[in-house]
Design a protein that fits this description.
Elements lengths: L1 H13 L8 H9 L2 H10 L3 E8 L2 E11 L5 E13 L2 E10 L2 H13 L3 E6 L2 E6 L2 E11 L5 E10 L1
Antiparallel strand pairs: 1-2, 2-3, 3-4, 4-8, 5-6, 6-7, 7-8
Helix pairs in contact: 2-3
Length: 158
């Protein structure tokens, strides 16, 4: 029985799937404290992999790996940078995924959430809702050790 339980736990761990983020979560991260953003990301199985600080800024880089099978691994990443200027703090959030279906789903979320496409230049799309802007970029990225893959990025800030 113990062997069966151990094998079952190992099997489950091998097939853990990283949670994708949605537009609402990206908006929350944009307007939340660093501590709350960290909690939101960790609850979605993202781990802080790098933090850089300099005069007037701090950049946080989170990644989430998804193992689809024994040979294929996918990565999602999110970085946010806080820029400090006197009494004001600005934040830029950049979310990247390599899943086309996730990209399509997020586009639907934008439109359902009241965003309208304002501009398209090549593979860059600008969506606006009130004073809030989200830029969606599609580009080819060379992922270390693999072929070139299409990256879908969402950039927003305050």
């Amino acid at each position: 029985m113990k062997l069966f339980l151990a094998v079952f736990i190992c099997f489950c761990c091998l097939h853990l799937r990283a949670q994708k983020l949605d537009i609402n979560t990206l908006e929350k991260i944009t307007y939340s404290s660093v501590r709350l953003a960290d909690s939101l990301l960790k609850s979605s199985q993202f781990q802080l992999t790098d933090k850089q600080s300099g005069k007037g800024y701090t950049n946080y880089y989170y990644t989430s790996y998804e193992r689809k099978d024994l040979f294929e691994h996918m990565l999602r990443s999110l970085s946010f940078m806080d820029v400090y200027n006197a009494n004001d703090t600005s934040r830029l959030v950049l979310y990247r995924t390599y899943y086309k279906d996730e990209y399509e789903e997020m586009k639907k979320q934008l439109l359902a959430g009241g965003y309208e496409m304002q501009k398209q230049e090549g593979n860059e799309f600008t969506y606006k809702k009130g004073g809030f802007t989200i830029i969606n970029k599609i580009s080819d990225k060379k992922v270390k050790g693999t072929k070139t893959m299409t990256a879908y990025e969402y950039e927003l800030g305050r």
